[in-house]
UniProtKB/TrEMBL annotation, chain A:
This protein's encoding gene: LOC113079392
Protein's recorded name: Rab-like protein 2A
Coiled coil, from the record: none
UniProt entry keywords in alphabetical sequence: GTP-binding, Nucleotide-binding
One term of GO molecular function: GTPase activity
One CC-aspect GO term: cilium
PANTHER family listed in its UniProt record: PTHR47978
Gene3D superfamilies cross-referenced by the UniProt entry: P-loop containing nucleotide triphosphate hydrolases
Species for this entry: Carassius auratus (Goldfish)
Automatic annotation (TrEMBL), chain B:
Keyword Cytoplasm belongs to the record: yes
Gene Ontology CC terms: centriole; centrosome; ciliary basal body; spindle pole
Name of the coding gene: LOC113075415
GO terms for biological process, alphabetical: microtubule anchoring at centrosome; vesicle targeting, trans-Golgi to periciliary membrane compartment
Keyword tags: Cell projection, Cilium, Cilium biogenesis/degradation, Cytoplasm, Cytoskeleton
Protein name: Centrosomal protein of 19 kDa
Claim: Nucleotide-binding is one of the keywords in the record: no
Family (UniProt): Belongs to the CEP19 family.
Xref: PANTHER family: CENTROSOMAL PROTEIN OF 19 KDA (PTHR31539:SF1), CENTROSOMAL PROTEIN OF 19K CEP19 (PTHR31539)
């Protein structure tokens, strides 16, 4: 019953100080998973949760002498619905938003992803990543205005040759941590209130739901 | 005369644009062979396409054929004159402007095929961790300076979200 899928989606754990959740956003085939894999190298243990069309990458690091557990959430095809399930955004502390410098449409879709992100997470740090610069290094002489207009940090990267990949993820972790320490995100508070309310009002029925889901998952 | 183009293609020998069209007045389907003249492997395809589109005798037949398609056909013809095979030429066309294709809308199978194509470039440019010049946390600064040119992707009217 306590199958891997369900316990890993236990979003409460992200309330703990030393745990952060970082999500990846962007169109199909912009290289989100390739970036993850380049950052984690051999050390990665991806967990496919096909029920939820997502991949989890767990990463442990030490920052200022403190051990930090990072869960990177990557989509596994869910982006093709042009929209992610709300739980994807829930309790995320930072977002890495990726486009492919070779495909204009992936850049043109950034505002859609950004809009959805902000509906759920109005305040979390968001990093904009221009991937695949190895395919055409000349793009690095150009400016892409989306990030500037939204006031977001922008990175030219290549998952293939490694340019700035580690920097992006290290920065993302730093930003996620400081966000978590310093913010009292209004939506977080609202969500917490709503959850408490739900728990109080129908504790029994929610227990039942989880049991059923657990069975389904292991079936 | 009301002409509706049905199909439009290219023939290599002699170089010509072939148009299958329907004459709405007579409901007859006909084929028109339009010779492509003064065209070499060094010609400008978009100009040649425009010339044809506005040709004094052919333009009426080509009204419902887009300039982009005529240009594409000229590109294929030019590739042929350069000695490329049709397959190579078509592959180059596909590769030349994948920029506007929405991969979110492809089937799993088609998406995986496209990813496999992209992987070829990825593998070619890939630095492996056994490579002598591999640097795990490679950082490169791309300084923001005033001469930096704005990407043309930002210059479109459909930018209200930006």
């Amino acid at each position: 019953m306590d199958s891997g899928g369900i316990s890993d989606l236990d979003l409460d754990k992200y309330d703990a100080d030393e745990q952060v959740k970082i999500i990846c956003l962007g169109d199909s085939a912009v290289g989100k998973s390739k970036l993850m894999e380049r950052f984690l190298m051999d050390g990665y243990r991806p967990q496919q949760l096909s029920t939820y069309a997502l991949t989890l990458y767990k990463y442990t690091t030490t920052i200022n002498g403190q051990t930090v557990l990072v869960d990177f959430w990557d989509t596994a095809g869910q982006e093709r619905f042009r929209s992610m399930h709300p739980s994807y955004y829930h309790k995320a502390h930072a977002c890495v938003m990726v486009f492919d410098v070779q495909r204009k449409i992936t850049y043109k879709n950034l505002p859609n992803w950004y809009k959805e992100l902000r509906e759920y997470r109005p305040e979390i740090p968001c990093l904009v990543v221009a991937n695949k610069i190895d395919a055409d290094i000349k793009v690095t002489q150009k400016s892409f205005n989306f990030a500037k207009k939204q006031g977001l940090p922008f990175y030219f990267v290549s998952a293939a040759d490694g340019t700035n990949v580690v920097k992006v993820f290290k920065d993302a972790i730093q930003m996620a941590l400081s966000y978590k320490k310093n913010s009292s995100d209004f939506m977080d508070e609202v969500m917490r209130e709503l959850e408490n309310f739900e728990l109080e009002s129908k504790e029994e029925s929610s227990d039942k739901e989880e049991t059923q889901e657990g069975k389904l998952d292991s079936a | 005369m009301s002409i509706v183009a049905k199909r439009c293609g290219v023939r290599f020998i002699p170089p010509s644009i072939i148009l299958i069209y329907e004459n709405k007045n007579t409901s007859k389907t006909r084929k028109r062979v339009i010779p492509v003249r003064n065209f070499s492997q060094y010609s400008d395809c978009s100009r040649a396409a425009e010339r044809l589109k506005h040709h004094v005798r052919h333009s009426v037949y080509l009204e419902s054929v887009s300039l982009a398609q005529l240009e594409r056909l000229h590109l294929i013809l030019r590739d042929h004159l350069k000695g490329l095979s049709l397959e190579e030429s078509l592959a180059a066309r596909r590769a030349s402007d994948p920029s506007d294709e929405d991969l979110n809308k492809l089937s799993d199978e088609e998406l995986n095929r496209r990813k496999a194509q992209m992987d070829q470039l990825f593998e070619r440019n890939r630095k492996h961790k056994d490579d002598p010049d591999f640097v795990y946390d490679l950082e490169v600064e791309f300084p923001e300076n005033s001469v930096r040119e704005t990407c043309s992707w930002d210059e479109e009217p459909s930018d209200e979200g930006f």
